[in-house]
Structure formats: C-alpha cells, structure tokens
Amino acid sequence: MPQRDREPNMSTVTVSQVSTEKEMRAFVRFNYELYKDCPYAVPDLLEDTLETLSPHCNPAFRFCQAAFFLARRDGKIVGRVAAIINSRANERWERKDVRFGWIDFIDDPDVSQALLQTVEQWGRERGMDRMVGPLGFTDLDPEGMLTEGFDQLSTLCTIYNYPYYPEHIRRLGLERETGWVERKVFIPKGEHEANNAKYFRIAQMAEQRYGFRLRHFGSKREIRKGGYVQKMLGVINRAYAELYGYSELDSEQMEWYAKRFLLMLDRRFLSVVENREGEIIGVGVCMPSVSRAVQKAHGKLFPFGWRHIARELWFKQKHQILDMLLVGVLPEYHEKGANALFFADLIPGGINGGYEWAESHPQLEDNLASQMQWKYLDCTIHKRRAVFAKNI
Q1: Residue 197: what pLDDT?
Q2: What pTM was estimated for this model as a whole?
Q3: How many Å apart are CA 173 and CA 95, to the nearest integer?
Q4: Which regions of the chain carry the CATH code 3.40.630.30?
Q5: Is the peptide bond before 303 cis (omega within 30 degrees of 0)?
Q6: Which of 37, 103, 205, 273 has the fewest Cβ atoms nearer than 10 Å?
Q7: What's domain 184-386's architecture?
C-alpha cells in the first residue's frame, strides 16, 4: 500500500478534463500504476476499459453524459475520477444524481477533495443535486467501494481499493447509502449437506412439479445464433429491476454486452433454466478466475497479455477459484426452486474441475431473497463494499 504522506505537501493539486486519446490511456493506466505492487488488486483491462469509456463504442452514452478528470501535482498524475449522469436511471428513480466512478487517488486528502469537488461542480452545472458513487454507467460496470476484505484477491469485474479510500470519502461528508456483500463459497466435499443432494432434491422437485429444465449449449455459435445472451440479459433486466439504482438495458446495450461476454464465456459454467414453455426464467454465469492472469498481463491484452488469460481459461489443468458473474431469476419463480437447478448444475462442475471455492458476485445486503440461496452451502462473507452519497 502506498505510504501516507506524513509531511504536508504544499504543491498545488490541479484537476483537468481528459481531452485526448493519450490522456484517456493515462486515465486507465493510473489504476495499474497505483496498484502494481498490491497482490490483491486486479488492474483495469486497458482495451476493455477504453471501449467502455468511449462514446463511440459504449451505447450507454445515448442516455448518459460523462466526463473524465485527472488530478496532477507537479505534472505527475496523482488521481482520477469519472463523472456520469445516467438520465435513464435518474428518471426511473426520480433523482438528480451525478455519479462518480473509476475513482483512484494517492493517500492525500487534497487529491481526493479536488477530485470530488470537480465532480460536484460538474454535476451542479448540469442541474444535479446529489453526488453518489462509486457507480458506473450501468450495473454491469464495477460499482461499490471496498470497505472490508482488503486482504482478499479481487476479481476482474469488481473494484479493489486501498483501506484509506472510505476514510477519505467519509471525511469529505459523504455518507454510506447502501452496501453489497461477497462470499467465498466452498465447493462441497465429503459429507457436507450440499453434497448430500439437498439442491439436487429441490431441483428434481422443481423439474417434476413445474416442468423446469436446464438448457445446455453445444457451441458459442448456437448461443450467438439463438440470441441467447440477449434473452439472458432480458431476464436480468426483470430480475434486477427493483434493485438499488438499476438502469435497464435496452436492445443495443444487450447486443454490445453479448459480443463482450461471448469472448470469455465458458459453456461448462453457463446455467440457463427454462420453464415448461421453453422460456428462459433464470440464468447463472460463472467462469474460471482470471485475476492472476490479468495481473501477469499487467492489465493489457496486447501484445502478449492475452496468452496469460487464454492459458488460465482454456489450457490450465488445475484451477482454484470460480467467479460467479451473474445470477438472476424472474421474480415470479423465486419460490419455486429455480435457483436449485443452478447449484445442481454447477456443483458437479466445480467438483469435477477441482475448484476449491467460488467467488460470489456482489449482492445487495438487503436483498434477502438473494442472500438465502446460500443457506445450504459452506460459505463466508469475506468482502463488503458500499456506495456513498451527499447532497450538493
């Protein structure tokens, strides 16, 4: 972790808006530079993040405004932040929020203050009355500042930050608004209850009583041709509709995400549940962890970083961690055992693959229905993250 400055630094912190491709690359790479010596942080993937932050690539810019800022001292970059207004989410939740995201800074209160004051001013100039974050354009972007679990390996799809971050945020008058938990879910072994067919019995009952069934795919081509990623994201839209700050995905966004997801999708860990009529009612997406591979690649796919990721995904013989990316079930099927089909499908795959544990996706701490799905598994909460807000 970077050492806290013990002596006051009288040099002025300046903040400027990113305006060139070179500055945008510096914006993305600052995360890598700040965390390159941290064994738990997984850097932003350069190419992927550049695409996400580009108005020419990311369809969210059709209903979002965004600006990106770099903080410098004596010409050296010491912090970054994105300011985002998601008009679709603001309309849905009847708010005037400016979001801050992709925020990183050295352990200096002058830097964090300068960054967030810039977001405040940018938001006020556009009629916003509240600042909230860390959030991205949509809920499929990394969100939530880590508040516990700083000694746990991060994932490619979540935010890692040093312990001083929430201290700075609170000092600047932001208050915790909501939070997420993440679990280390141990793959059942031996006599554990989950390995004694608990989920399998529930899944079998759901199949017999309601006609639920798992759909498996023979190839990515089948998934792509059938538009199944878009159908799955349609389920996520309905499953997450009432969750904190959710921004509904439209067809253009679904198409964009479909292309991205298919690149690293592992069909062995894709669980799609259909009802009797063949309609998708639930989806679970997992993949072997690429955290160590992205660290080795230094956060870049090219020219050689893709080899580390490909080796981890498709050529490594023994894995340790399985990352859960998405789990969603249509609300009307929550009490009918659809979730059990996911676990009945994934548990044998985890055992056969030699995995030790799975990393759950972040779950809102007040989403009790989602929290209950782990009750038959050996797991522990090992990370917490939060969103902070203040009136501006």
Answers
A1: 65
A2: 0.91
A3: 20
A4: 13-180, 184-386
A5: yes
A6: 37
A7: 3-Layer(aba) Sandwich (3.40)
The string of DSSP letters for 268-328 reads GGEEEEE-TTS-EEEEEEEEE--HHHHHHTTT--TTTHHHHHHIIIII-S---EEEEEEEE
User: Among 25-39, 146-160, 250-264, which is the least confidently predicted range?
Assistant: 250-264
* CATH T-level fold of 13-180: Aminopeptidase (3.40.630)
Q: Which amino acid, residue 34?
A: L
The one-letter amino acid code at 64 reads C
Instruction: Scan for tokens 């759950």, then name that residue.
Output: 360
Structure tokens at 27: 């914006």
Portion of the chain with pLDDT greater than 90, in percent: 64
Residue 6 is predicted with a pLDDT of 43
Give residue 385's identity as a one-letter amino acid code. R
Alpha-carbon distance of 354 to 34, in angstroms, equals 34
Closest CA to 278 of 231, 237, 241, 223: 231
